[in-house]
Write a structure and sequence with these properties.
3 domains; Oxidized Rhodanese, domain 1; alpha/beta; Metallo-beta-lactamase, Chain A; six-stranded mixed β-sheet
Length: about 450
């Protein structure tokens, strides 16, 4: 058996390519599908099957494009209601790929149609060696049960189903079975997913809080507490996946735009999105542009901050980087990208236009300002759980995805220092505050991690 996990760090998303005797299956493909076609060709495999463990909410899947390009059949749980041609699968159904048998388990809980896939390489043993768990079981966590309220299911309803799925299907498997989930640390589909991308079921029995001995009622309480608000793009992406997304190649070509064209676009409500890192943005950027660095969890944060049909113009170092940013936006269903600033910020200043800057504050300077009793407002834009685990003393917690709704808690006439974990989210937050009229802003370099590394005190 050929088996490969293809992990996309910027989305904390895992997909899988499995092959045997010239045939292959892809499980939970991301939207840009060339990676599967190329890998299958390199291994001498033909993709004949595409499995979706559920209708994903946190990214747009490439199942329809991959099926069109390869002739493969798509398999989904029979409760999906998908609008494209597919094979609806039920508990116990199987498909064979050479010497490999893939058996479907119905495991509702994260969504009603969720399935897991038992993988048995008959050339090795008659018993299953691994299980692809989608968003049913993560490493160290389980899928959140609160994403299908619009379909008439309460969080408690879904959590009860998840309890049954885990106990009646997953936990009946041998300890040696290797668990391969659809997400890792950083995904909003769970509360506290491990950074590990696979584990054994035996290890999960010992370490995963959700698999400990408890009653159904206790599990429902645990699974439904402390859930953050779902990112705003989740519902949009789940519906795109139900209908079947268009191919990436069908998106309009990126247009190289002159500064004058961009000024007109911004005047019409277009978001000017600067995808450079925080340091480059701090040195000089187009006034009014928002910063979301391409090197971080760019796509998921863009999906959280912007409405699905928001139009963008990109600021990047070059055209290939702009194209990469456009593709990453499309992965989360943000498809309305008009173009990019031709020549980047150098072209902007070269045409006689002024660049703005953002102060980059070292943690020592932040500590000195606090010690002097300066009027500085310190805001921590991390998630509540991160803030509660330890933060700069006196920092006000205003999570990035809620910041624009919390501006009334800040004084725009006083200086503001913004801190996150590393400096990525804080730069994005500073750009949002600048657009809202705040003028005295500083991004704390290295964030809370640098503060702690410097030996400075935190408060819980």
């Amino acid at each position: 058996m050929f088996f490969k996990q293809l992990y996309l760090g910027c989305l904390a998303q895992a997909s899988y390519l499995i092959g045997s005797e010239g045939e292959a299956v892809v499980v939970d493909p991301r939207r840009d599908v060339d990676v599967y076609i190329d890998e299958a060709a390199a291994q001498g495999l033909k993709i004949g099957h595409i499995i979706e463990t559920h209708l994903h909410a946190d990214f747009v899947s490439g199942h329809c494009e991959l099926a069109k390009r390869t002739g493969a059949r798509i398999y989904l749980g029979h409760k999906s209601g998908a609008a494209f041609a597919h094979v609806p699968v039920h508990d116990g159904d199987e498909i064979a790929v050479g010497q490999v048998v893939l058996r479907f388990l119905e495991t509702p809980g994260h969504t009603p149609e969720s399935i897991c896939v038992l993988v048995t390489d008959r050339a090795v043993a008659a018993e299953p060696q691994m299980v692809l768990t989608g968003d049913t079981l993560f490493i160290g966590d389980v899928g959140r049960p609160d994403l299908v309220g619009s379909k008439g299911y309460s969080s408690e309803d879904m959590a009860g189903m998840l309890y049954d799925s885990l106990r009646e299907k997953i936990l009946k498997l041998p300890d040696a079975v290797v668990v391969y989930p659809a997400h890792g640390a950083g995904s909003a589909c769970g509360k506290n997913i491990s950074k590990d991308t696979y584990s054994t079921l035996g290890e999960q029995r010992r370490s995963n809080y959700a698999l400990k001995e408890m009653t159904r009622e206790e599990f429902v309480k645990v699974a439904t507490c402390d859930l953050s608000e779902p990112p705003r793009y989740f519902g949009h992406d789940a519906e795109l996946n139900r209908l079947g997304a268009s191919a990436l190649g069908e998106l309009a070509p990126l247009k190289a735009m002159a500064p004058a064209e961009i000024e007109v676009a911004v005047g019409q409500g277009i978001v000017l999105l600067d995808v450079r890192d925080a340091q480059a943005y701090g040195r000089g950027h187009v006034p009014g542009s928002l910063n979301l660095g391409l090197k971080g969890q760019f796509a998921s944060w863009a999906g959280s901050l912007f409405a699905p049909r928001q139009a963008f113009v990109l600021v990047a170092d070059d055209a290939p980087t702009a194209a990469e940013a456009r593709m990453r936006l499309a992965r989360v269903g943000l498809e309305n990208v008009m173009g990019y600033l031709d020549g980047g910020v150098d072209a902007w200043s070269g045409h006689g236009r002024t660049l703005a800057s953002l102060r980059q504050m070292e943690v020592g300077d932040l500590k000195a300002d606090r010690d002097r009793g300066a009027e500085l407002q310190v805001i921590d834009v991390r998630r509540p759980g991160e803030h509660q685990a330890g933060h700069v003393p006196g920092a006000l917690n205003l999570p990035l995805d809620q910041l624009e709704h919390s501006l009334g808690r800040l004084d725009s006439k006083r200086p503001v220092a913004i801190v996150c974990q590393s400096g990525y989210r804080s730069s994005a937050a500073a750009s949002l505050l600048a657009r809202a009229g705040f003028s005295d802003l500083a991004n704390v370099v290295g964030g809370t991690a640098a503060w702690i590394q410097a030996g400075l005190p935190t408060e819980p």
